[in-house]
Amino acid sequence: MTDERSGLTRYRCHTGNSFAAKALLTSQTEKIEETLWVSMRMFKERKNLLNNLAKTETFAATRKKYMEQVNAAEVHIQRIRAMLVGRSPRAPGLTACEPSDVTPVCTHRLTGIMSA
Question: Domain locations in the chain?
């Protein structure tokens, strides 16, 4: 809803936290980027694990399956990297490096638009 005093549209999550539209968009963008970095790190770890398993596997069929999964993980890594680095223009305040300490503003699902 629009606050008649300020003329700003405010969004409220189901726990009562209130956000201006730009602040909410920035927060969502930051959380999405953080999630993508975590996903990429997990895929890299998975790829390394699968490579190690393939190196020590004695059965050719199993080794082949591990290597197929390594290739699939690499495809996911490249796609995520492209989303993270290829974004233009970037949201204000975001950098292209991995976040080391990100504090969520509000992780609750928005249930609708309500007045401030």
Answer: 10-85
